[in-house]
Every structure is written in C-alpha cells, then in structure tokens.
Amino acid sequence: MPSRAVGPLRDGDLLAALDLGSNSFHIVVAQRVLGQLRVVDRLRETVRMAEGLNALGGLSPEVCERALACLSRFGQRIADIPPRQVRAVATNTVRQLRSPEAFLGPAEAALGHAIDVISGREEARLVYLGVAHEQPPQDDQKRLVIDIGGGSTECIIGRGFTPLERESLQVGCVASTRRFFEGGKLTRKRWNAALTEVALQFQQFAAPYRSLGWDEAIGTSGTHKAIGNICASMKLTKGAITREALAVVRDRILQAGRIEDIDLPGLSDDRRPVIAGGVLVLEAAFDALDLSRLQVSKAALREGVLYDLLGRGGADDPRDVSVAALMQRYGVDAAQAARVEATALALFDQVAKAWSLGAEDRAVLSRAAHLHEIGLAIAHSGYHTHGAYVLQHSDIAGFSQQGQRFLAALVRAHRRSVPKSAFEMIPDRLLANARHLAALLRLAVLLHRSRGNETPAGLQLQAEGEKLVLRMDKRWLQARPLLRADLESEPEDMLGLGINLKLALD
User: Fold this and answer.
1) CA distance 406 to 426
2) CA-to-CA distance for 506 and 492, rounded, in angstroms?
3) What is the DSSP-derived secondary structure letter of residue 185?
4) What percent of the chain clears pLDDT 90, i.e. is strictly above it?
5) How many C-beta neighbours within 10 Å does residue 356 have?
6) Cα–Cα distance between 241 and 293 in angstroms, integer?
7) What is the DSSP letter of 496?
8) Measured on CA atoms in the order 473, 478, 483, 486, is the torsion positive or negative?
9) Which part of the chain is the Ppx/GppA phosphatase C-terminal domain (predicted)?
10) What is the rounded distance in angstroms from the CA atom of residue 358 to the CA atom of residue 344?
11) Which residue in 62, 151, 190, 375 is a FRET match for 498, CA 20 to 30 A apart?
12) Domains of the chain from N-terminus onward
C-alpha cells in the first residue's frame, strides 16, 4: 500500500476522512476551495464494533465481517482519491484488541488505504479541532466539549482552536449498555449502581476541569444528537440538552423496563439499542461537571480528521509542532539534531529511488533525527532504549499509535545491536521502510559522533536490494580513527536490520 506523501494541497483536491468508531463507521468527503473545505459527500453505517469485543480482546467473526463489508463499500467511494488525501482512524474498540493487526490487515485491504489507530487523547484533540472549525469560537472563549462514542467518552476544554485539557474515559453508549443492562433489563436499581460507577471515572478530573472553567459546553457525536432530537421532539428544549430535560428522558427510558421497549419521540430504531448507555454516561457527566445545559454540535471526530489532514505537510502540521515540543521538554541538543538530520536526509536522497522511499518516509526520518537523543534526559546508558519507550508510550498530538511505534523503532535501532523485538510492533507493509530508514539514521548518527559541524568529504551511498555501499574519502577518514573504527564494526550491527553494508574508500 503506498505511503501518504506530504506537501501542500491545491484547490479542487478532494480529501476524505474515515472514523471507524465503536458504534458507527463514518466517511466524509470534502473539496479544498480557497484554502477551506466544502463537504461534498457523507456516508454512515452502524457497525457496532464494541458489540463484538470480548473480555480477552478478541473480535467476534460476525462483527468483523460486518466491519470489513462496510470498509469495502467505503473503499469504492474513495478509490479515486490519492492516498495522501485520505486518512482513516480507528478508535476505542480497535485500541482494546489484543492483536490489532489481525483486524487491521484485512481492514486495510478492504478499504484500500492505511488505517491509523489513535489514542484516546489524540481522539479528543481531533474532536475539539472539528468542533472549533465548524463553530468558530471567540479567541478568549473557553469551551467544554464532550464526545460520547460507542466505547469511550472524550472530554476537552479548549480556548480558540487550542485544546487545553484532554481526557478519555472507557465508557460509551454501546459498552455501557452491554455492561450495565445485560439481558436488556432496565431498573432504577441497576441505573443508580451504574451511575455511581461511571461517575467515579469523571471524578478523576472533574475538580481541575471545574476549576479551569468554561464559557460554553458542547456535546458532539450521535449520542448527543439523538438525545437533543428527543428533547426537541418532546418539546423539552429546542434541541439543547438541559439537566431537567435529561432527567425526563432518563425516567421515560426506565419506564420502558426493557431496552427493546424504549419508545421515545425522535428516537430512531438504529439508536434505540444503545440509547440507555448514552443517557447514563451523559447524566454522570452532568453530575460530575455540574452542568446545567449542553449545546449540540453537528461536528465530530471525522471533521477534525479532515481539518488535521488539511494542515499536514504544511506549516500547521501538528506532528512537527509535537516534535519541537518534545525536543524542548527533554532538552535535546538542537544543533546536533540538525547535523544528524542534514546528513540523514542527504543519504536518503541518494537511495530513495532504489528503496522506493517517498516524501512521507523522508519526513519520518527527519523527525526521528530530531528525537533520537531524547532518552539522554533519562540516562546516557541505554538512552536509545529510554527514548524509544518515551516515544511509544507518550500521548503525542498528531501521531497515530502506529506512527509513534514507527518512530520508537527507529530511535531504538539507531545505535548498538538491533534486537529482533525492535520492529515487532511495525505492520508488515511498513517493515521494509522501517529497516531502511533505521539504517540511514544509524549512519548519520555515527558520522556525527564527534558532534562537530564538519561533514564527511565525498560521501556517497548506493543501495541495491538489501545491499548498501558507503563510499568516502580515504584520507579524510584516516584522520579520524575513532570514526573509522565505528564504521568498520557497523556492518556486523547492520545485519540486525537485514542489510549488508560495505565501506568503500577512494
């Protein structure tokens, strides 16, 4: 599958964002017009991925088949859109899978595009981005945004277009309905016990959120839209959700006695099986955050993915902002990082065609060069291992989980021997590129071990299959015995990447 290229988009280009949620799969297609996005198509299918998730992290064959069939249909819609203009993200249910790749492999084949698994906090950032662009706020206005999905709930406080606080909870409309109302039975006793348990999750961050405060509260996603429609149909509000209206809706749900018997004005048949869990989570949020009123937004995660995609490859790429923030936080030597980056990219340009590496690969190598020494803030001994751990396990804005693991693998493999485990989390479709980029980063780091500004004279790199020939000026290298010793021992370590390195001196 081709990697996404980077670079500015042009007017007329189509972009597509796919949200593989725990309840529904969504796709939105938009056209870039004068730097803005104009939506031209939307598709939605109820898949209910969370229904198929078992306690061991497996996915039922029935739900998996349902998901793949949906992705195949979505893939037909976006078949003519270039890969760099498409982004698909998977959320809580895929995050919870014991072996995500067992699902992602067939899913990517069905869709015809890569699928990024994003963390809960990254999901929160993208949700806020979507709301902020669809309903532009005042610069000094703070907003609370709540997104109740099928398997998780995201809560964000932001000012303008910038999220200030992000939290993700393991509660959602599908998961909560399954867990707390097993067998479809609805009783007040069950409801109150469930409400207490869900409220405890909100209490983890409720106090600092209330202390920070907000000027406006907004709900997004299908759950909020459904509850807003019910409130309007019952003439409780004009579409907003208030504490009083929510209590009326809750009581009507409990009066039904069973989920299949819920009968509320404005409630679709599609939403009925999961509305109880959604109302439960929202009531817990109202109580914990002391809410009185919530506006409902039409925007959601998919809109955020679109606007994020619009900014990628340009000055607003959130990944580059995050890299700069990490460098500052961990005290990275920026001058050394720049030296390593310059040499790594020079080597890249010489072998890119032979190794079929694209612009996105070049951007990844650049970011890895900037971050390869972040582990030094923890300890010099094994700093490459420390750095890899930080990159894999941190919440880094703009990156998918696969993207973070890719960076972590490059940092882990940039020095010393390369363990087999370094690339075990990399999808098969990315493995060759990961090994090749790691080889380029290793050479660049070795060549700048002295941390000086000089660049090697007559440096040339040739690639043929898994063979690399590094050609250098002999007299220049003889004047640097430490570097020569490093380079002479490097071919043995490079075998850990499956690459045969040869040093040629002219």
Assistant:
1) 6
2) 22
3) B
4) 91
5) 13
6) 6
7) G
8) positive
9) 319-490
10) 14
11) 375
12) 14-118+305-310 (3.30.420.40), 136-298 (3.30.420.150), 317-505 (1.10.3210.10)
Q: Taking the CB of residue 42, how many other CB atoms lie within 10 A of it?
A: 11
Please name the amino acid found at residue 505: L
Measure the CA–CA gap between 165 and 468, rounded to whole angstroms.
47
**What 3-state DSSP class applies to 462?**
strand
Distance separating alpha carbons of residues 148 and 296, to the nearest angstrom:
12
> What DSSP assignment string belongs to 5-73?
P-S---TT-EEEEEEE-SSEEEEEEEEEETTEEEEEEEEEEE--GGGGB-TTS-B-HHHHHHHHHHHHH
User: Could you tell me how many helices (H) and strands (E) the chain has, helices first?
Assistant: 18, 14
DSSP letters spanning 383-400: HHHHHHHHHHHS--TT--
pLDDT above 90 for 315: no
The answer to whether the beta carbons of residues 274 and 174 sit under 8 Å apart is: yes
Closest CA to 223 of 277, 294, 176: 277
Question: 313 pLDDT band (50/70/90 cuts)?
Answer: low
pTM for this prediction: 0.93
